[in-house]
């Protein structure tokens, strides 16, 4: 990159070259209403203690709710959950109206048929430019090996598959 101003669109294209999983992070607001947002910024931080992180745009309506929440869940979506990803990427709709979920630790929503789920206690929240970085201590987790994860790369959904060189 040179000294000229950053081309935001081009920078996003460069970032999209790194495939990520797709998840919906959920919690409850102060009145107990379920809240959720689609995120692809999810990572492991530490094994001991078990910590993960994700980030949320400061301009999203639910940011303050996640910043104040004591618990949240990361629902890693499977390849068949594109509609769920799209629903929770929208603003201003009753996202949970037709979604089948159960309640986990801290009464946070857990979706059915995900690839993986992480139930977390908020460990810390950090400033990160135009985002907040939320670190959670994993209190419980589960995964289903057979539920292939949904992936996002180069501006579109994709599915994970094994590289031919690694197949026995």
Mean pLDDT: 91
The DSSP helix count reads 3
How do the SSEs run, as a string of H and E? HEEEEEHEHEEEEEE
CATH class (first level) name: Mainly Beta
The CATH topology turns out to be Pnp Oxidase, Chain A
Kindly name the structural category: mainly beta
The total strand number stands at: 12
Distance between the termini: 41 Å
Low-confidence blocks of residues = none
The CATH superfamily bears the name Electron Transport, Fmn-binding Protein, Chain A
Report the sheet with the most strands, covering strand number, pairing sense and barrel closure.
7 strands, antiparallel
Which percent bin holds the helix content?
Answer: 10-25%
Q: Note the quaternary state here.
A: single chain
CATH architecture classification name: Roll
Characterization of this structure:
The protein is mostly beta strands. It has a single domain, classed as Roll (Pnp Oxidase, Chain A), CATH 2.30.110. Helices cover 13% and strands 43% of the residues. It is built from three helices and twelve strands. The chain has helices spanning 8-15, 63-68, 82-89, and strands at 20-21, 23-28, 34-39, 42-46, 51-57, 71-76, 101-103, 109-111, 116-128, 131-143, 150-153, 156-159. A seven-stranded antiparallel β-sheet has the order 3-2-6-9-10-5-4. A three-stranded antiparallel β-sheet has the order 1-11-12, with no helix packed on it. Strands 7-8 form a two-stranded antiparallel sheet. A hairpin with a 2-residue loop joins β9 and β10 (131-143). The model has no long low-confidence stretch (mean pLDDT 91).
